[in-house]
Structures are given as C-alpha cells and as structure tokens.
Amino acid sequence: MHLLCTSLAGSTSREAKAAGIRAAEALNTLLDAGPVPHLWNTVTLAGDLRHRDAPDRDTVGRQEREERAIAAKYAPGAAPAGGILTDTAPVVAALALEMTERLLLDGALAVVPTAVHLCAPCGHMTGAVAHACRACGHQGSRPHTRRLLVWDRPPGTPVLARDDFHAHRARTPGHLLTIAQNVPERLILSRTRDHGISLAPLELDGLVLDPRAGVHIAVLAAAARHSAGRPVMTVTENAAANVAAYGALFRQHKGTRLRYALHGRIPYDDTAGLQRLCEVHRVSPALRELFLAWFLPLCSLHLRAGITAAQLPGLLKFWRRAHLARPDTPPGSDVLAELRRRVAAGDMRWVMDVQALSQAIPEYPVTHGFAQEPEGAS
Predict the structure, then answer these.
(1) What is the pLDDT of residues 64-117, one digit of tens each?
(2) Beta bridge partners of 187
(3) pLDDT at position 377
(4) Cα 31–chain centre separation
(5) What average pLDDT score do residues 212-223 get?
(6) 8 A C-beta contact, residue 21 and residue 38
(7) Distance (Å, whole) CA 198 – CA 32
(8) Could you say which DSSP state residue 130 is in?
(9) Bridge partners for 252 per DSSP
(10) Is 266 helix (H, G, I), strand (E, B) or coil?
(11) Tens digits of per-residue pLDDT, 282-293?
(12) In sequence order, what E strands does 164-231 have?
C-alpha cells in the first residue's frame, strides 16, 4: 500500500512543513511499498499575490514561478524517486474534469446561478457572505449573482466518516467529524484565482476548481500513476478540518478511496538546544539525522496534537534507548510482518514501544532530497 502525501501549506512554505512527506516516506519504507511521490499544493491566493507583486512578473509566468519554488526545495540532482506532482499538473487537471463532469452527470454537483459577494474594487469573489477581500484587503463588497459550480448537500449527509481515516479504531478523531459537519448545506466549488484547474471547459470562464477539492484529486492521480489502490494522505488535524467537506465528493474514484493519516506538527524551527543534547547523550550526526527525519515524523503520527520543543529531550533519550536495543541480526519475517500489519491498519502505538521501534529502525539515514535540513528552516 502506498502512503501518499501532499503539502497543504503550498510550494513556497517553509521546508519544515514537509513533515507529512517524511512521515509517508518512513511508512512506505516500513511497508516496502516503494518511493513516495511528493505532492505540492500550488493553488493559493497567497501565491497569486506574490506573483502580482514580483518585480519579474512580466517575464516569469505564474506556473513557472511555482515550478522554481518547488525545485528550490531540493538539492541539485536530488529529485525524489517517486517524482513530483502538483495540484495543477495536466494529469491532475484531466482527472479533475473527468470526476467533475461525472458528478454533474449524476446530479451530485450542479452549475447554477448563485448569489455571492465580489470585492468592489478588484472583483475577487469573497464568498456567499460579505467580508473583507483577501486579495486586496478592501472592506467593501457588492452582491452579485453568477453561475457557479456548487454541491447542494442533502440534509443529514455526512461529509466525513470514521472510515475516512487511516487510524486505529480507538484513535478516530470524533471532534473532526463534528467540525466537518458545521459547513453550509451549499458548498461553492469554483473560485476566482489566477492559477488553478480551469473550469472553462464547463463554461465557467475565469473560475478554477476549489483547491480544497484539488488536493484530493492530486492524491488520486498520484495513486493511479503508481498503481496504489489504497492511497493515504498525511495531513494535520487543522488541515483536515479545513479541506474534508470540500473533498467529500473527490475522495473516491473507480474503486480507489483516499483516506487521511493525521499527524502533528514538529518543532523543526525550535531545536536550538538539540546539538548540545546530542553531545551530552553521545548521539552521532547520523543518528541525529535519523531522529529528525525519520523518528520525529513517525512520532507525529502518534502524537497528533503536535510535538513541542519541551518534549525533544525526552524523545531523544527514548530514541537513543531504542537504537541501542537494535538486534544484532535483521528482524525475522514474522516480526516485520506484524509491524507491517500494524502500520497498514493505522496503528502507530508501536512507535513508543522501545522493542518494537528498535526492530524498525533503518540501517542508514533516510534521504528525502530536500535542499535544507529540517532544523535549518526559518
């Protein structure tokens, strides 16, 4: 089973926010499932604004700017073995239109005149409710009715269920199920952006598919490319709460169903004392790299509320104990089979078991291909 991930923070975000990619890489290594494709979300209003304000905007296009930002994430010649895919790649756009057209044909989605608000000065669609424009900051808006792609959710239809999570049954986040339900019965799935999956083929000129739907389609496209029948998207709880409703109709396609694997944040930008701790506990540079790029991402799948800087000393001591407990010979097939069974079932409790963890530690530091070390992000 491939565990696929996407960086919901966008291609120009701090490298430290790629914890989900590292977690997926670690899990795929344990499952011997092959390399993880690195997925990047590029359809952001912030990206549009950066491009508009860039001094070279007349010579560098929006798409090229995103490609450059993503390329800068990786060391020269260190592209990920599983490849790179963005949420606007041709294969993703084609799948998005295929799925959207099918949902329109089935009556799940509709293109109908919808009352919204547009920013008075710049024309950006602010949504169904009047509020300050996120594109230019202006407070004034005007009502407008235009044809939009919408999902009119039947009353009582859930947008998120327990089996949408790749997690042990005792760890299903009930509060997310509640949060996801608190969305309007009509969801607008078309947006005004300078960059995205164009809905012009649906006669919605000037609009793109809502990026919260697009990130799900990108995972499904990557799963199809890698023949992965059970894709899992690593994501934080906050991100899942934000995108789940908009992805409800886009989590399944032709028998392939996407699930979420929740992970917490890692304080990569708050590890100033880590070097001193490593010296005190005689942790080698290679072991430190494994701690940062392999163990902490796995921990984040268990400690989903997030890892704090105050927890790093204790986790480092635990990590050293587990490394010292590594068996002299590679673990037997039965040991690996049990570990893989637990991983495939979404059970990450073994990460805090010294003996179980010691069996899983790879011999060499992982190579994720990023240009910056996680602790160097700023």
Answers:
(1) 999 999 888 888 877 888 889 999 999 999 999 999 999 999 999 999 999 999
(2) 151
(3) 28
(4) 20
(5) 95
(6) yes
(7) 37
(8) -
(9) 257
(10) coil
(11) 889 889 989 998
(12) 186-188, 190-191, 208-209
**Is 301 within 8 Å of 23 (Cβ atoms)?**
yes
- Per-residue pLDDT band for 19 (boundaries 50, 70, 90) equals confident
Q: Which residue has the tokens 């997690």?
A: 167
Residues 230/164, Cβ–Cβ less than 8 Å: no
Joined tokens for residue 227: 């023949």
User: ∠ CA 29-26-296 to the nearest 5 degrees?
Assistant: 155
Measure the N-to-C terminal CA separation of the chain; round to a whole number of Å: 34
Pairing of strands 141-152, 110-119: antiparallel
Please check whether residue 162 is in contact with residue 138, taking contact to mean a CB–CB distance below 8 angstroms: no
Q: State how beta strands 232-235 and 208-209 pair.
A: unpaired
Nearest to 269 by CA among 236, 233, 312, 318: 312
Burial of 370 (0-12, 13-18, 19+ CB in 10 A): buried
Question: Edge-to-edge strands of the sheet including 141-152?
Answer: 125-127, 110-119, 141-152, 186-188
Determine the longest span between alpha carbons in the chain, in angstroms.
71
Helix axes 211-225 and 90-106, enclosed angle (nearest 10):
110
Q: 290, 373 in Cβ contact below 8 A? A: no
Query: Considering the entire predicted model, what is its pTM?
Result: 0.90
Cα separation, 332 vs 338, whole angstroms? 10
**CA–CA dist 133, 117 (Å, integer):** 10
Model confidence over 332-365: pLDDT tens digits?
788 889 999 999 889 999 999 999 999 999 876 5
For residue 236 the two structure tokens come to: 């934080």
